[in-house]
């Protein structure tokens, strides 16, 4: 059985590409909920390291949502003018005691405070599909998950439920 991070634990999040190389590392996220099905974490102004070694700092508090059954995760970013979401299409998460990990499959959905959204990086997906020889069964999975993710956004389900980010942000503040 997969282990999972414990509430209050500070962990790293690692995303990889299909070829096994590291894509991005978020250096610290406080676990607010950790079960074998769902991990919810919070962070604020943390260091993110890119594959090329470049580092940058996030600009706002964020609540991250990972689901063990879904090929996507979401980051709800709390900004002055509302909550923006950045959703990554990728494998369901694993946790090995070192970090929460997933494979990033390029496609992203950006969701605006009014819950309108945009699918991003389709060209990057096509390029990496060729370069990294994505298996043929991957595309139908991702298409299904994009549709499901959009339906969650439209229905206000999961991390898009009204009040979800605010609720977990209040919990995050208790660890600061």
From TrEMBL:
Binding residues annotated for Mg(2+) 2, in chain numbering: 106, 108, 121, 124
Swiss-Prot/TrEMBL keywords: Hydrolase, Magnesium, Metal-binding
Swiss-Prot/TrEMBL cofactor(s): Mg(2+)
EC numbers for this chain: 3.6.1.15, 3.6.1.6
Residue ranges constituting the DUF402 domain according to the UniProt record: 20-157
Active site: 24 (proton donor)
A Pfam family recorded for this sequence: DUF402
Keyword Cell inner membrane listed: no
UniProt name for this protein: Nucleoside triphosphate/diphosphate phosphatase
Species assigned in the record: Texcoconibacillus texcoconensis
């Amino acid at each position: 059985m997969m282990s999972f991070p414990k509430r209050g634990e500070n962990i790293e999040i690692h995303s990889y590409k299909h070829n096994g190389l590291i894509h991005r590392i978020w250096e610290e996220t406080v676990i607010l909920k950790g079960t074998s099905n769902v991990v919810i974490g919070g962070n604020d102004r943390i260091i993110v390291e890119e594959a090329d070694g470049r580092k940058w700092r996030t600009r706002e508090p964020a609540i991250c949502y990972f689901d063990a059954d879904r090929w996507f995760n979401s980051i709800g970013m709390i900004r002055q003018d509302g909550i923006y979401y950045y959703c990554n299409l990728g494998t369901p998460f694993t946790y090995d005691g070192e970090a929460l990990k997933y494979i990033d499959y390029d496609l992203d959905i950006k969701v605006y405070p009014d819950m309108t959204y945009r699918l991003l990086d389709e060209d990057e997906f096509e390029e990496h599909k060729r370069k990294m020889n994505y298996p043929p069964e991957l595309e139908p999975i991702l298409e299904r998950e994009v549709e499901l993710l959009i339906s969650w956004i439209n229905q206000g389900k999961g991390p898009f439920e009204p009040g979800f980010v605010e609720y977990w942000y209040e919990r995050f503040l208790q660890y600061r």
